[in-house]
């Protein structure tokens, strides 16, 4: 069981990108498919994938 978990973790870590944002950087936020339908009233391919840009005002923590 542990070997399978380690193997899956190594596969997932290959696709993960380390991203750090500093104060005053501009970022785009990914919209979940359900919130996109409710918020923008569009479905499928016409649904916006990202909203923004937003400016980073404060850095709260490493994982926040």
TrEMBL record:
GO terms for molecular function: RNA-directed DNA polymerase activity. Pfam families: SH3_Tf2-1. It comes from the Eukaryota. Keywords: Nucleotidyltransferase, RNA-directed DNA polymerase, Transferase. Residues 25-64 form the Tf2-1-like SH3-like domain. This is Putative reverse transcriptase domain-containing protein. The lineage of its organism: Eukaryota, Viridiplantae, Streptophyta, Embryophyta, Tracheophyta.
């Amino acid at each position: 069981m542990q070997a399978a978990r380690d193997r899956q973790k190594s596969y997932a870590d290959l696709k993960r990108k380390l991203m750090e944002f500093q104060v005053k950087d501009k970022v785009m936020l990914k919209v979940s498919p359900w919130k996109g339908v409710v918020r923008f009233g569009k479905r499928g391919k016409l649904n916006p994938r990202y909203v923004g840009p937003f400016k980073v005002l404060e850095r709260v923590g490493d994982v926040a």
